[in-house]
Amino acid sequence: MGPIQHCGQGCSAVTLTWQTDGETWLLLPPQPRAVIHFLGGAFVGSAPQFFYSRLLEELARMGMAVVATAYPTDIDHAQIAFKAAQSFHRSLQSKGLMGLPLFGLGHSLGGKLQILSCLALPSLGSQRRGNIFLAYSNAGLARALPVLQALAQAWPQQQLSDLWRMWMGSSSPPVNLWLEFEPSPAETNRLVEEEYPVRNNLLVEFQRDDIDDIPLLYQQLSRKYGEQTEWQCLEGDHLTPLGFSYPFPVGQEFSPIDAFTQLLYQNLLAPNYLMIQRIKAWLLAQLAYSSQLRSERRS
């Protein structure tokens, strides 16, 4: 991954480069104002530094330390979330990020995993200043993997297990492979209503997305936390959060063709850009409010 430019409070450009320990990808500004823990959607969540580079690099440019946990898609969402929470905690400790405001950001399945990760390590989950859900999905197996479920009714178990290992990369499929995700949508809904501890939440729905579960999540969280839950409906679809950073040339070699290509690129990613601006505005508002509360406590 190439370096990106960060403009600090004094607006002096600082180069940021993706770092990784093998399971986590990080962008670390010199003096971060907060930490964003990111979990992507199914399959694309295995390479967040690539599939979500535009979003995550923009957050780093505004001074956010980005900790993006990569994960292999599996049916046991609780185990994925537990490992992600552990990995996040290790990154906070090893990179000296403890004590900074913590935020979660998840796309699609990554939103469900953010909820579960807050419960997997309650001492860490309770420290979250807020979570952001992009096209949140709490789909069951029948809706998320209809092809696999149809195969389950026709193929021998051994062949299905071989298919799972080939597609998902797991050494052995879980026992309840052809029953339901763990936890199920119903159990996840119960956990949200009874145990989810994060009060400040931004829910982003996209106008052409017919597979998300944002409306139900909004009902659950607004009943629980009232006006601290914000719902925004933006232009785009379920894949709008995906976006790649393209290194356009600068200087004397920037040709008219390059200018046209950059304009086309920006227009195609206009919904992604708007989404990023809304996320940044919400984060800044949360940080400003937290700073105001600290000042009031001191006085």
Protein model, in words:
Helices cover 45% and strands 17% of the residues. It has 299 residues and is α/β, with parallel strands linked by helices. It has an eight-stranded mixed beta sheet, with helices on both faces. A hairpin with a 5-residue loop joins β1 and β2. The longest helix has 29 residues, at 270-298. The mean pLDDT is 84.
Feature tags:
299 residues; alpha/beta; eight-stranded mixed sheet; two-stranded antiparallel sheet; 10 strands; globular
Provide the low-confidence segments as ranges: none
Oligomeric organization of the protein chains: single chain
Give the helix level as a range of percent. 40-55%
Give the overall shape, derived from the CA principal axes: globular
Major sheet description: 8 strands, mixed
Number of helices: 12
The SS-based structural class is alpha/beta
Overall radius of gyration: 20 Å
Give the number of DSSP strands: 10
- Distance from N terminus to C terminus (CA atoms, Å) equals 46 Å
The proportion of residues in beta strands is 15-25%
Give the SSE order as H and E letters: EEEEEHHEHEHHEHHHHEHEHH
Mean pLDDT: 84
Strand order of the largest sheet: 3-4-6-5-7-8-9-10
